[in-house]
Amino acid sequence: MHGIQEWLSFYFKSPQCAPQLNPEHHHFIQLMKQKNTLPYLRGEEHIIHLGLEYYD
Amino acid sequence: MIRKGQKIAEPKGKLGVLLPGMGAVATTFIAGVEAIKRNYARPFGSLTQMGTIRLGKRTEKRVPLIHDFVPLADLNNLVFGGWDIHGETCYETAVRSGVLGPEILEKVRPQLEMLKPRKAVFDRNYVKRLKGTQIKKGKNKYELALQLIDDINDFKRENKLDRLAMLWCGSTERYLQPGEVHSSMGRFEKGLKSNDPEIAPSMIYAYAALSMGIPFANGAPNLTVDIPAMVELAQQNKVPICGKDFKTGQTFMKTLIAPGLKSRLLGLNGWFSTNILGNRDGEVLDEPMNFKTKEESKLSVLEHILQPDLYPELYGHFDHIVRINYYPPRGDNKEGWDNIDIFGWLGYPMQIKVNFLCRDSILAASLCLDLVLFLDLA
User: CA nearest A29 in B: which residue?
Assistant: First the structure.
């Protein structure tokens, strides 16, 4: 991966992002962004926290 | 863009960690890693060392540790080096900084005594409150960048390193805005050669790193890589870069509380934040042009989380004030107070008070480790 790593926003007061975007400051969205990136890199499915499948 | 599930190379060999600015944060980070490697202490606060990640359905109960899930460099393979305007060893700096006590420092003293920073690129025009004792000399900023590149090559060769990452742990520089010289790498390189005053020392370090294909992260709010020229260089050399200014104390709290208020659609009339801080960071931020850089970084957080354009009745008119007061008796143990004036149902006002007694470098050190390992992964 190269260029701006938005998934590391979690660590910064001023996250860097693409010019057309606003930086993401919401701590838990930052965490989710990071925790989504790692499974993506490993080819795992994303967790979307819908949870309906447990009640079918 | 990287493809999903693309093969990731195993992090074999040694990873060199380059630290411009080897003060309280850097030495707390290094001493911590050396202590953790030897099982003298635990890496609390570090996602890469203690965090887990859920995979699959909740019923599958697959929750590996992050460092078992993605190939991250082992702490035993980290080798530290860097630059500072003072010629003390990392042990001397760590003792003077007063962050860690002898119960940790004496156990890793030999490792810290071996580490002496190289001469730094520094200019008091960007950090008025500091005076250095070992500073590089060069006829222009480009020549200083070449000297840094030589240092990095020496460090790599002497320690037989396979990969490198650079993390700015130096001071906050005076406020700079993106300008013409930052707009492209061609203009930036011309600016280096003509000593353009809009090119700060942190940019010279970042330029050296990115030119060599070394990822860069910035612990201070300096403009540094947040300019088109550096993004261009990072893309061209296929190097990862990320944000600026470690989110540690008061702003960390702010980004926890503000989303909570917004989630319940509680309105905000004002948020007053003040701090006392007695370390070198506090001293530097006592200078108005350096505080301005920090203030910009701290102020932007609430606007982006609360989205006043979408919720004008709730967040269209709040006062947000941030103060930092240099108060030497506290050293690295800063204290922050927040007064938050909120309103709820029918507009009735309420208040929240936060008093956070935190340790600046303790909170930053775990971030340093995570960033180095994740940048290396990237």
Answer: B259
Residue B6 Cα to chain centre, angstroms: 29
Number of A/B CB contacts below 8 angstroms equals 133
Rounded CA separation B255/B258 (Å): 6
Question: How far apart, in whole angstroms, are the C-alpha atoms of residue B117 and residue B84?
Answer: 5
Amino acid at A6: E
Three-class SS state of B18: strand
* Three-state SS sequence of B93-122: HHHHHCCCCHHHHHHHHHHHHCCCCEEECC
The amino acid at B225: V
**B286 pLDDT above the threshold of 90:** no
Residues A12-47 have pLDDT tens digits of 999 999 999 999 999 999 999 999 999 999 999 888
Provide the 10 A C-beta neighbour count for residue B2: 12
Q: Which residue does chain B place closest to A5, by CA atoms?
A: B242
CA proximity to B285, closest of B249, B339, B323, B336: B323
Do residues B354 and B338 make contact, with C-beta atoms less than 8 angstroms apart? yes
Contact A38 B70 (CB under 8 A): yes
SS (H, E, C) B249-302: CHHHHHHHHHHHHHHCCCEEEEEEEEEEECCHHHHHHCCHHHHHHHHHHHHHHH
User: Can you tell me the ipTM of this complex?
Assistant: 0.96
Q: Do A22 and B301 touch (CB under 8 A)?
A: no
A29 vs chain B: nearest CA distance in angstroms?
10
- C-beta atoms of A5 and B56 within 8 A: no
How far apart, in whole angstroms, are the C-alpha atoms of residue B152 and residue B215? 13
B65 and chain A in contact, CB less than 8 A = no
* Phi then psi dihedrals of residue B221, to 5 deg: -85, 10
- Residue B185: what are its φ and ψ, rounded to 5°? -70, -35
Check pLDDT > 80 for residue B298.
no
Q: Given strand B267-277, what is the order of strands in its sheet?
A: B319-326, B267-277, B335-343, B349-357
How many angstroms separate the Cα of A12 from the Cα of each of B70, B158, B278?
22, 32, 22
Q: How many CA atoms lie within 13 A of B204 on its CB side?
A: 31
Sign of the dihedral defined by the CA atoms of residues B77, B371, B228, B126, in that order? negative
